[in-house]
Amino acid sequence: MAYDIDMIKKVYSQMTERVEKAREVVGKPLTLSEKILYSHLWDGNATRGFTRGKDYVDFAPDRIACQDATAQMALLQFMQAGKKNVAVPTTVHCDHLIQAKMGAAIDLQTANKSSHEVFEFLESVSNKYGIGFWKPGAGIIHQVVLENYAFPGGMMIGTDSHTVNAGGLGMIAIGVGGADAVDVMAGMAWELKFPKLIGVKLTGKLSGWTAPKDVILKVAGILTVKGGTGAIIEYFGEGARSMSCTGKGTICNMGAEVGATTSTFGYDDSMERYLRATNRADVADAANEVREHLTGDAEVYANPEQYFDEVIEINLSELRPHLNGPFTPDLATPISEMAEKAKKHDWPIKVDWGLIGSCTNSSYEDLTRAASIAKQAVDKKVKAKSDFGINPGSETIRFTAERDGLLQIFEDLDATIFTNACGPCIGQWDRSDRKGEEKNTIVHSFNRNFSKRADGNPNTHAFVGSPEMVAAIAISGRLDFDPTRDKLLNEDGEEVMLDEPTGIELPPKGFDVEDPGYVAPSPDGSEIEVKVASDSERLQLLEPFKPWDGKNLTGAKLLIKAFGKCTTDHISMAGPWLRYRGHLDNISNNMLIGAINAFNKKTNFVKNQITGEYDGVPAVARAYKAAGIPTVVVGDHNYGEGSSREHAAMEPRHLGVKVVLVKSFARIHETNLKKQGMLGLTFANESDYDLIQEDDTFNIIDLENFAPDKQLTIEVVHADGSKDIVMVNHTYNDSQIEWFRKGSALNLIKLQNAG
C-alpha cells in the first residue's frame, strides 16, 4: 500500500466537482495544470477565474518534501511556529551532505561521522513533529519521492528547486524556500502568483541515441534560463505518451533550469505502469477512476494556441542528441556540431570525467541505457579514456541494479559507484584529479553546470547530456566524439563503433530492496526534546529578524553591484559550505563571495566606504552592520537563478542588507527575499543599473507609503554629492507587505499563533 493513501483518495474524491466547477467559472476547456491548480484552492471550489501572471492565489498543497541541506533551516523556523505537528504529510531526505570521494561504503561512513550532529537533529525534529525521515544513503530526494510519494493530479511543494521532478508522475510539484514550506507545515495557505502556461507539443517518437534528456536540453536552448519564469510547462502529444514515466521525470526535473514554476505531463499508461511497479497499485486504481481529470481537456491539446500563452512543438523523430554548456544549462549544441563549436570557443577537448546519476537521471532505465554502452566497450575491448562516477538515485535503484548486474558492468570499466546521494551534482565531490589553473572538461547527466558547481574549480568546463551520451563520450575521452558516426580504437588496434543504446523501462524481475532507509515518526512526539548545543558550529537556533521601523530608508550604502549572472551558487555557495546550512551566522561568511564586482571584475573584493579599503563581501557587510549602516545589493537579470536555497536570502538579511535591487529576479529567490522581510525591487528603467557607482548611498524617500502596484523612489547619492532619482518596481501584495512590516513571514505566523 502507498504512503498516505487516504490523503490521495480524498484528493481524487473531490476532483470531479472541483474541476467541473473550475471549467464553469473559467468558461472554457482546461489544461492539466489548471485542473490541478483549481482543485487545490485553499478556499475549495473555484468561484472565479484567475488571471495568469497577475493574481496571487492561496493554495492547499497535499504534501511537502525537504532535503537535508534546506531542511535544517526550514525546521529551525518551524520550531518557532508553535505547532505540535505538521499539518500535511512531510518528509526529510538526507542526500546533500554526503561527499563523493572513495566510493559508496567509505563515503557514507565518513558522512555519518562528519555530519552526525545534523542527521541526529533532523531525525529528532522529524520524530517530534510527525515527519517521515529518510536516512543518509536512502537516496536522492526526488527519486525517492517519485518512487514513493508522487501521484497524478497532486500538488506538492519542496525545499529544493528540483521538486519539479514529480511532474513526471503528473503532479504540480514546485520548489520553494523553507519559509514557504513552514506556512504549509503550520496549516496555513500557500501563496503563488497564478502561473502562465507554456505548452510543449511532442510529436513522433524517440529513437537511437536520442533520449528524454535531449527534449529538455532542446527546450532549454529555446527558452533560455529565464524563458520559463512565472510559467508552468505542460507537455502533451503522442510523443509525450510514448516516453517512460522516469523519462518524463527527467524532462520535468531540468525544467528548473529555464526558470519554470514547474513542468508536468498528463496521466497515461507509462505512469500507471510505474505506479504498479513501485508497489502502488492502489494509487493507480484510484487514479484510473478520475483519469479524465488527470490530463488536459481534448480540445486544449487539439488547439493549444488558444489555451496556452506560448506553444513549442518538437518532433521527437527528428530530435538529435545534445550537449549543453559549459557554465550555463541553456547553451545547447547538437552532438554533430560540437567539434566545430568546441574548436571555435577553445573548449578543452579531452574529457577527464563522465558522471552519471543525480536526481535528474538516476532511474533504472537510465542505468540500463548507459550500461548498454558500457557493456559494448567491455565486449569490444575499448578501455574508457575518462574516469567514471555513478550515483544511483535510491537504495531501491542501487539494490535492483546490483541484483541485475548493471553496476558490475560499470565496475568492469573501472567506474566508481558513489553513494545514493547528490554528490558531484551539488558540489559534494572531493575530486581525485583536482585541477588547478588548467582548463579541463567534464561531462555529466546532471541538471546544472554553473561555474564551480561540481568541483569548486572555475576552470572546469561542465557539459550536460543524457546518461548514454555521457557514457559514450567518457569512453572516447573526447568532447567532440559523435557516437553516431565516429569510431573508436580498441586494445587490439581495431576500429569499432558503438551500437545504439538499449534500455529497459522497468526491471523485469521487479524492484527489490532490503532496507529502503525509511524511519517513521513517533505517533506522539510531545515528549521528544530537540537539542541544539550553544557552541555548535553546525546548528544555531534562530533569532527573529527585527520588524520595520515604519520609516523611510536612509543612508544605506552599496555593498556590491553584481555583474552578469548571479545565481544562488554565487550568493550562497554549496560544496563545503553545506556543512553550515543549519548555522545562519557561520554560513553567512559565504554571502555573495562568488558574485563578480562590477567595478573591478573580481569576486569577493568590494569597497568598504567607511575605511575606503577593500575586503571580502561578508567582512564588509559585517563592518556596516556593526556600525548600524544598512546596505543595498544591486544585480543584473534573473538574479537568484538556480536553487531554492533560502540561505541566499537569509544571509543578506542577517548581515544587514535591506534592499536587493536588480533588473529581474528568478521566481523562488524573489519570494524568499519577501518571506525574510527584505525589499526585492527591480529597476523601472533597466538602464538605471548603469547609474550605480561604487561609493553610492541610497535613500528610499517614499517607503512610508509602501503599497501594492505603487512604485518606490530611490534617491541615489554619489560621492561628489550629485544625485540620481531612480524609480523602482515591486510585486508585493498586501500580505507580503505585512511580512515586511513584521520583519518576516515567520514573525507574522508566530504573532497569529500567539493570538
TrEMBL record:
Keywords: Iron, Iron-sulfur, Lyase, Metal-binding, Transit peptide, Tricarboxylic acid cycle. GO terms for molecular function: aconitate hydratase activity. Pathway: Carbohydrate metabolism; tricarboxylic acid cycle; isocitrate from oxaloacetate: step 2/2. SUPFAM superfamilies: Aconitase iron-sulfur domain (SSF53732), LeuD/IlvD-like (SSF52016). Its EC number is 4.2.1.3. Residues 35-477 form the Aconitase/3-isopropylmalate dehydratase large subunit alpha/beta/alpha domain. It comes from the Bacteria. InterPro entries: Acnase/IPM_dHydase_lsu_aba_1/3, Acoase/IPM_deHydtase_lsu_aba, Aconitase/3IPM_dehydase_swvl, Aconitase/IPM_isomerase, Aconitase_4Fe-4S_BS, Aconitase_4Fe-4S_dom, Aconitase_dom2, Aconitase_mito-like. The keyword Iron-sulfur applies. It catalyses: citrate = D-threo-isocitrate. This is Aconitate hydratase A. Belongs to the aconitase/IPM isomerase family. Its cofactor is [4Fe-4S] cluster. Residues 558-686 form the Aconitase A/isopropylmalate dehydratase small subunit swivel domain.
